[in-house]
Known about the structure:
The complex is a heterodimer. Chain A contains 17 helices and 7 strands. By secondary structure, chain A is α/β, with parallel strands linked by helices. Chain B has a 5-stranded parallel sheet with strand order 2-3-4-1-5, sandwiched between helices. A two-stranded parallel sheet of chain B has the order 6-7. Chain B has helices spanning 5-8, 21-32, 49-61, 65-68, 80-91, 114-126, 145-149, 161-175, 181-191, 195-208, 214-224, 228-237, 241-254, 259-270, 277-295, 300-318; strands spanning 39-42, 69-73, 102-107, 131-137, 152-155, 178-179, 211-212. Chain B contains 16 helices and 7 strands. Chains A and B meet through helix 13, helix 15, helix 16 and helix 17 of A and helix 10, helix 11, helix 13 and helix 16 of B.
Amino acid sequence: MSAMWAQKYAPKSLDEFVNQKEVVKIFLDWIKRWQPGAKPLLFHGPPGTGKTALVYAYAKEKKLEFVEMNASDFRTRAEIEKVFGQSVQQAPLFAKGKIFLIDEIDGLAGKEDVGGVGAIIEIVKKSMYPIVLIANNPYDPKLRTLRQYCQLVLFRKIHTSDIRKRLAEICKNEKIKVEQEVLEQIAKNSDGDLRSAINDLESICCGKKQITLKDLEVLAARAREADIFSVLGILFKSESVRQAKGAIANLDKDPEELFWWIENNITREFTDPEEIANAFDALSKADLFRRRVISRQNWRLMAYMIDLMTAGIALAKKSTYKKFTKYTYPEILRILGSTKTERKDEKEKLLELSKQLHCSTAKIRKHFLPFFRIAKIKF
Amino acid sequence: MELVWAEKYRPEKLAEIINQEHVVERVKAFVKEKNIPHMLFAGPAGTGKTTVALAIAHELYGKDWRANVLETNASDARGIDVIRTQVKNFARTKAIGDVPFRIIILDEADNLTADAQQALRRTMETFTSVSRFILIGNYLNKIIEPIQSRCAVFRFKSLSENDIRKFIARIVKGEKLKISEDGIKAIIYLSEGDLRKVANLLQASAALGKKITEEIVYEVASRAKPTDVKEMLELTLAGNFEDARKKLQDMLLRQGLSGADIITEIHSQIYSLNLPEDAKIQLIEKCGEYEWRISEGGNELIQLEALLAQFFLFSKKKK
Lengths: 379, 319
């Protein structure tokens, strides 16, 4: 079987990145100045915009050994070190040099990956060769430390007209006759994702030498991951239960996180106290259902939590605000993230104190600490 | 760390305990026989429940009491897992020394979930030959009946003014303090019968002045009281909901105050707010509603924010 078109037509050199000049320039500047210990690049942006392809094309052009790994495949610090630790310091066998690509960095930040992020940072520090990291969501709080070691590079969606041009080139090369309108539709449908556009083209062609608009009907619109900001926009501004609930259909966030996004942005959208009170009351009720889901393990109840925190919020307003609202990352998640060690240290001190004073940490907080502050007793 | 007076002046021996005679007398008899039943101590805060439990341990095991006693509290270790693992593992092993059982002191037992109490009941029965439980709590009615029926139940009484005076006198003598009669009266009044609070009030007051007077005691009491709640409500009513929310987040997430304490304070503040009387009664109802939601397991921050938003409603109407 011949290679899939998406691979066959992946860029072979950086010149082919006609529509991504900015990132190519950043990348080349970085690699020119690169020396051991330099900050790695952290690529992020929607799928199919050339993040992997860029590094791959460069390696090919310069005849470098291209080492790619997916961080989601590694569960522990030890595993990462085993696979990467030596390789980043050894000279390549045949090629002139090496370049490393670690994909899905956010995939290793789960609970079990204790020290995973730390291991990546260490590897980055000791590497003799350039390393590029890729994350779907670099603003994941779990990646906070890592982010500070990296230079972030955003890949934007590819312009529809650029996608159409590329599709036309492929058709020409494959000797396929195609109506311009077909390519336009595929390009639009791809929402800036070149890879999916090429895949779509390949699947409707499948051996045919001529395609028309009619052939397009087989293509289902790909379910796109909606980004949180536009979801919040629809949610806050919608006027029906169905629309508000539908807003989160393609959102790839768990309800818990979405909950705090909504909590954080109620007062950014609404200004009227009555609306704000209604909205928080809806969240309060959603929260009760969340609690019931957890304590009774009754997942059916999750549906009510979701309805209340979407539609309940949307219908809290008297009329839709015709303004652009700048939604922001949940402050609560930020505080919880940044004070984690602090709170853990304090809890440990309190637990120690709790042994000495024979009462719970909650009682110490309430009955002892206020007096300690006045008497200037340190604990 | 400097010695905390509440701990320094906690009696070690049963004989040193100056109040709760009805309890102490019976407990002394058990200790003499070196055989105690499972016990349940219930009563208001700071009336000597933990002190009696620890004194029993001291008397039975002497200096090495810690080897034979597991002290745990249900607010830091709530839930069924603690009962199933920590408590069970301790309960099943034999005591060191000549007393044939170990003691498990379970403080704030009224905070244990119902499931955990059920698990506890089994453990109490299974390991009776090698361990005894002393459960401590404020409210008897939050302990399930099967557990109550397996325990000798002791009700601790509120302390009399005379009891508190004796305790103050002990600390005053021990620390060579100077205190005025008004000062003593103020402490008695503010302590609400809680000896832990008496000791803390005295220690903080002594840090502020050479002679403890009524003024100093009241100053300590007012400084020890969180003022953030009042400020938070004032900000909300002045229309500044955002800063009020920030204050709330700070109290809960950084200062580690409990939602229950904050809502109690909000409730007590309502009476003195500059609001029409009908607004106050509406807010009191809301206060009850959200407190109930917290007790149902709701997230403290969300529930308190929702309550705060109800106060925000009245900022508009005031204009």
